[in-house]
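Every protein is a chain of amino acids, and every chain bends into a shape of its own. The fold becomes a row of whole numbers, each drawn from a learned catalogue of backbone shapes. The protein below has been through that process, and both of its lines are reproduced in full.
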Amino acid sequence: MKPKAVVLLSGGVDSATVLAIARDSGFDVHALSVDYGQRHSHELTSAAEVARALGVRRHLTLAVDLSRIGGSALTGGIPVPKGRSVQRMAGRIPATYVPARNAVLLSVALGWAEVIGAKDIFIGVNTIDYSGYPDCRPAFIRAFERMANLATKAGAGGVRFRVHAPLIRRTKAQIIRRAVALGVPLERTHSCYDPGPSGRACGRCDSCRIRKKGFREAGIPDPTLYRQNTDGAG
């Protein structure tokens, strides 16, 4: 019997690739998406499509409304930064940082993992081509793993939880190439922080620009549907 794993699936390139990695590594994949009140909720539609395409055992979407506390351009009325260069993105933590988001998402994943008897949790965080979020760093992942083994009944009973972040030191181009090799349906993934009503990507937010740069450097055509008159990543 395959060991179970919970994979956090946002619907973006990174999380979809991590899901494929977990499946390719022999895990019985249970995908978890979280509706946290994000303005780019179209990503949840993409997550469902990716989960179906990759044949996960179960895809669960939970609502944890972080918009009630606000503090982010993704959950409140703060404008989403547009047109920033990759160099500027690395300068400071941006307005799109959602307070404690990955701590919350991993906690929900941990709870589900304990219930279904999974010892492994996968998350698509990255510290190379990313927007400077502190909860994407290796130190945070290691600290959460230690906490997971202290804070649960399963951990107290001798179960060893492991938090996997297989893309944490990969460039976006490397991730995209890996995704292609694993058969990830990249055309179904969604990265934009400020999509239009139909789900078309803005092409100018940090996430869109990092995505464009990744496809360009990977030498792979970008299947994303962008709104007209968007500029390239700088």
Q: What stands out?
A: The chain has one domain: 4-191. The longest strand covers residues 28-35. Residues 4-191 form a domain with the Rossmann fold fold (CATH 3.40.50.620).
